[in-house]
Design brief:
By secondary structure, this protein is an all-alpha fold. It is 63% helix and 0% strand.
């Protein structure tokens, strides 16, 4: 009678049951995944810090805004120079690119400080967004906001400011609409007599 080999049975039994080894492997993988997840969190925080730092700094390859004009303090010569700068942007960019919005800008905008404030930040914002070699998704969204929300609101504010202002009234007094002599045009002329001409009858007589 053969005596069973207990060592062989224990070895066979351990080999036949893979669950303990699998559990150990899963535990090892879980630790490795947790370590990788921590590294990804560190990288994500580092990337966000870089993006915040980049947004807070001027783009050396793009446009850097000029200091804001202090219209209420500027001397006449400085004010004229600053207005000429805005006028160049209005002529070269705004009037040629923004259609009916630019058409709402009255000729007397130079004499309205509200228009000067608005055109200053609009022109600078436009330059910041468009005078750069590349653009990100954030820049694209900012360009859309400029055209769809900021510019229409700015144009309406400037239209309201210059509608029926003293400059338009003074211009109307200086250049009144000429009166047209309506005699001979089919309307009642002086004395209420009509000067409409009768056409000769048509057909053979």
């Amino acid at each position: 009678m053969t005596v069973p080999d207990h060592a062989a049975q224990e070895t066979y039994g351990a080999a036949a049951d893979p669950l303990p080894a699998a559990l150990l492997a899963i535990a090892d993988h879980a630790e490795q995944l947790a370590a990788i997840g921590g590294q990804l969190d560190d990288l994500r925080s580092w990337q966000q810090a870089l993006e915040r730092r980049r947004e807070g700094q001027a783009d050396p390859a793009g446009y850097t805004p000029i200091p804001a004009p202090r219209w209420w303090q500027m001397a006449a010569a400085d004010r004229t120079e600053a207005i000429d700068r805005l006028a160049a942007w209005v002529e070269q960019v705004y009037a040629t690119s923004y259609g009916h919005l630019a058409g709402m800008l009255a000729d007397c905008w130079r004499q309205h400080d509200l228009c000067l404030f608005i055109l200053d930040f609009v022109s600078e914002l436009h330059s910041v967004l468009y005078l750069r070699p590349s653009r990100s998704a954030r820049t694209l969204a900012d360009q859309a906001e400029l055209s769809l929300r900021i510019l229409p609101t700015a144009a309406e504010l400037m239209r309201a400011e210059t509608t029926r202002c003293d400059h338009l009234l003074a211009q109307a007094r200086r250049y009144p609409v000429p009166k047209v002599d309506k005699r001979g045009t089919g309307f009642a002329g002086a004395g209420g007599h009509s000067t409409t001409r009768r056409l000769p009858p048509t057909g053979d007589h």
